[in-house]
Amino acid sequence: MRQGSDGQTVIHFRAVGVTLLLAHLLLVGWLTLRPLDVPWITAANFELLAGIRADLALGPVEATRRIGGALLLLAPLGVLLPMAGGRVFVSSWVSLLRTVTAGALISLAIELGQTGVPGQVVDVDSVLLNTAGVAVAHLLVVPVWRARLRRRGLPGVRDLPRYRQETRLRDEAPGGSTPTITRVGIAP
């Protein structure tokens, strides 16, 4: 990634983030929304935590594979969504809330999309596990990543608040803003 001035580094982070986000969503869509040719299908699960209990009843190896797969499916969104947003100076809690909400909505959209796909089974626990995976990935990577960007002092990141202020001042009239004086009447 090239380091530039005037926020170029942030723009490159955003471009890479958007590209990786789209690639990941295409992969997830292909994995979860393609028709499967299976001899039989279990019923849809709308009871909270019933799918996780059923996975745990299959034994530790199969439970780890199924639950871990659901946790890891959308986990990259925990990093890619903030990266695509390109915000470095944002509250950690706000970022977590935005990312987890977006991850939950994407997971819900996938589950709703599976209702019309042959061979795919809707499971409410998948939404919970996918959202938890997004939250864990975000908490493990994003705060450290943002702190490192701030600490490294990249030109596009360190100077971003000052750059925005300079841009705002530059966009005003060439001589500055028009002064206003109280108690001066308007000429006829």
TrEMBL record:
Superkingdom of origin organism: Bacteria
Organism name: Streptomyces stephensoniae
Coiled coil: none
Keywords of this entry: Membrane, Transmembrane, Transmembrane helix
InterPro entries: Teicoplanin_resist-assoc (IPR053150), VanZ-like (IPR006976)
TM segment ranges: 12-32, 70-90, 127-145
Domain VanZ-like span(s) in chain numbering: 22-142
The protein, known as: VanZ family protein
